[in-house]
Amino acid sequence: MENIPGLYTNPDPVTQDYIFNHTMLRVRxxxxxxxxxxxxxGMKLLRKVDFNEWKFSLYFLAMxxxxxxxxxSAVSTFTxxxxxxxxxxxxxxxxxxxxxxxxxxxxxxxxxxxxCFSVPxxxxxxxxxxxxxxPFQKRLGEGGMKxxxxxxxxxxxxxxxxxx
Amino acid sequence: MENIPGLYTNPDPVTQDYIFNHTMLRVRxxxxxxxxxxxxxGMKLLRKVDFNEWKFSLYFLAMxxxxxxxxxSAVSTFTxxxxxxxxxxxxxxxxxxxxxxxxxxxxxxxxxxxxCFSVPxxxxxxxxxxxxxxPFQKRLGEGGMKxxxxxxxxxxxxxxxxxx
Lengths: 164, 164
What we know:
CATH architecture of the largest domain in chain A: Roll
Largest sheet of chain A: 4 strands, mixed
Oligomer: homodimer
Number of helices of chain A: 3
């Protein structure tokens, strides 16, 4: 990957211990979002942090085999050292809305587009999502890119599914 | 993490090979975004895919020590198997805008909030960002959470900085 305009191929050594740790999405109701990310996608909740004074809570999830042990400080350190963490922000009270107050970035104004999970067998994964009544934005075989799918999380954020 | 409403702590075994692969952000100009993510944050470009018929290009970056070897199929498989990939989408022509046409999700309509990098020494990292003239959304010591910072990427997406 040389000769790509703007690309810097000789990174400062100090950056090489930086970790792309997490992506944060606001969610209407953590009950339904945790159900989606833990039951449908198999993520584990590593950490929940309540900021009651400021009326919000954070939920940190990741695809880990084992939950971290130890006190909140140990779990916080473990979580900060991972890549591929999803942070869900719940502003207290939004769960009382019938519909999500949040915007998924794929209509104007656009910006953020989606998160993506890769799976070992995309056909099996999509059949499983259908059996769980997960809504699809795009099914396998539809549209220009036939070998990928998009499902929707409870706030209508798009979750791309690709085969690893 | 038991007894959290909605949380499913006995995940379907088929989900345990799912990988939270990437987060996609649209960018105005890949030249300036690649400069930011490769020079300032040290990410490596794994793969660039052009869809000229549909007038967009995709750039896949990650914090990897070594670039993958092999043809595009091998690189694609390598990329899909990682966690912590950042996908930048360039819709051809947006680079001609003087300002980004994209919305960072932190004013109405809100939704996506930020991505986050963890670093070994946040004070040193923030001093380095200052020396590189990176704009800050929030400096260390400001606001309610004094031990985190937010910098802004070239499209004004917020990038949280925490200490691992």
